[in-house]
Specification:
By secondary structure, the chain is of the alpha/beta class. The chain is built from 19 helices and 17 strands. The N terminus is likely disordered. It binds S-adenosyl-L-homocysteine.
């Protein structure tokens, strides 16, 4: 029934609010805080962000509280009844249970809103968890029954609501009066704003293209009769998807993935990550398996341009960081030439992901003062690297794409003077639940690896830092 849809979890008509949610204007209002410690400080900061005028009363008032700009009076003494005479709001944060009870009762008698920190039964109001995208503010409360749940929900909303929401709301606010005078009809106004909010202009805001978006918003208001025809060009985001574990995505990556029209991804981007993309987005697999490109690079570059020219928000998902052995530079060169707006989102590169998740620091006071990233990709059956530059005992070498060339690489390093006892590790599918680490030295790593069945992608780390693996390895242990 339609009723069930309105309130699926409750029998209709029984909604009961233990607390009435309201937003209070405290600008320049006197708010009294009884208590001078860290708890009082936390509340004071919150009230300060609403520009309240704070009066703090306690025998001991901590320095940070005294220094808070919005604290305009402090009384370094015990609380007196008359202290609440001019108060709009009262916060009680003392360790003295009796005193808390007393002040709470006094406030109730005077109809003064009071919050006794961590004691809901003494409160006439409670403070919610907030997600602040001013002027948009989301407040969450569990009415004191499950603060941890409320906080976890808040964390999810924090990552879900981009910071740019505030700017979008503020800009809409600025134009509200103008739109109202241009479109006296209420329904026409609603349709206008809905188009803005659900259309390309809001998207531009959320992608951080603020000045562009503001300009387009002004244009939309100017030409409000045909607001439907506000057109925006497409854009491309070159997004680093990290080394495989979805938890290691950046917020920005996730946001773009969830607002994209088209996603281009390749083998290095795990299915779990592709699954996080907007459900309705078109997904194009462009391959990039070693020696088996589903789409050759020039075709990918061309496709990005065409998709953007059709007006799409395109996300090009790349493993790790797009600017580290990812040919990311090439992919956006064409975009730059074609004048298509683009951005690059850094990702956690395989070296840092694998290093952290295997417990092998890339630098260490005792072992390595520098670290180089090289590609071990084979060309005509050999690896072409400046070996002389690499053979430095105080340097960590990270080899990307080096599985096939591994025996060759170890041999060349030894031939060019690195000790054959130099520790070396191969990390397979780093940061994922399938991660495996094989450690040895330049002399025996190739053999150790050949004895196992190894699954790409793999990364080699060479240098004294590999000695720390035994002590610092945490990931496989934690997940066994
Ligand atoms: N742009 C990527 C690297 C692309 S080159 C980045 O910044 O990480 C592809 C190589 O990255 C693979 O051959 C492998 O050496 C390495 N690699 C990527 N993900 C990896 C992972 N999860 N574990 C081990 N190596 C990985």
């Amino acid at each position: 029934t339609p009723f069930a849809r309105i309130s699926p979890n409750k029998p209709h008509g029984t909604s009961k609010l233990d607390y009435f949610p309201a937003f209070m204007n405290l600008k320049s209002r006197e708010c009294v805080i009884v208590g001078g410690g860290q708890v009082a400080l936390r509340k004071a900061r919150l009230l300060a962000s609403a520009n309240a005028q704070l009066v703090v009363i306690a025998p001991d008032i901590c320095k940070e509280l005294k220094n808070l700009k919005q604290v305009h009076t402090t009384h370094q003494r015990e609380f007196r009844d008359a202290d609440i005479d001019n108060a709009t709001l009262l916060i009680v944060a003392t360790n003295d249970t009796k005193l808390n009870e007393y002040i709470s009762r006094l406030a109730h008698l005077n109809n003064l809103p009071v919050n006794v920190v961590d004691n809901p039964s003494l409160c006439s109001f409670i403070t919610p968890s907030i997600v602040d995208r001013s002027p948009i503010v989301v407040a969450i409360s569990s009415g004191g029954s499950a603060p941890v749940l409320a906080r976890s929900l808040r964390a999810r909303l924090e990552s879900y609501i981009p910071p740019e929401y505030g700017q979008l709301a503020a800009s809409m606010g600025e134009l509200r009066a103008q739109v109202k005078s241009k479109l006296p009809n209420e329904r026409a106004r609603r349709i206008f704003w809905e188009k803005i909010v659900n259309g390309p202009i809001a998207k531009q805001f959320l992608l951080g293209n603020q000045s562009n978006a503001i300009e387009q918003l002004h244009q939309a208001v100017d030409s409000t009769d045909n607001a439907a025809n506000v057109k925006t060009p497409g854009s491309v985001a070159l997004v680093g998807a990290g080394p495989g574990n979805p938890d290691l995505l950046t917020f920005r990556a996730l946001r773009l993935m969830q607002s994209a029209d088209v996603i281009l991804h390749d083998r290095l981007v795990s299915p779990e990550i592709v699954d996080l993309c907007r459900r309705d987005a078109e997904r194009i697999y462009v391959g990039k398996q070693r020696d088996n490109h589903a789409l050759p690079q020039p075709k990918i570059n061309q496709l990005l341009i065409e998709l953007a020219q059709q007006g799409n928000s395109v996300v090009r998902l790349k493993g790790g960081d797009p600017f580290i052995f990812g040919r990311g530079g090439e992919e956006i060169e064409g975009l730059a030439e074609a004048g298509i707006p683009f951005e690059v989102v850094p990702g956690i590169t395989a070296a840092s992901g694998c290093a952290s998740y295997s417990g092998i620091p890339l630098t260490h006071r005792n072992y390595a003062q520098s670290c180089v990233f090289v590609t071990g990709h084979l060309k005509n059956g050999t690896v072409n690297l400046d070996w002389q530059k690499l053979v430095n005992p105080d340097q960590t070498i990270v080899v990307y794409m080096g599985l096939e060339g591994l025996p060759n690489i170890c041999r060349e390093l030894i031939n060019h003077g690195l000790a054959d006892t130099t520790p070396a590790a191969l990390i397979e599918q780093g940061t994922t639940p399938q991660q495996q680490v094989i450690t040895g030295d330049l002399n025996n790593l190739a053999e150790l690896v050949s004895e196992k069945s190894v699954t790409a992608p793999t990364l080699m780390i060479i240098g004294g830092v590999v000695n720390l693996y035994e002590k610092l390895s945490w990931f496989s242990v934690a997940n066994k």
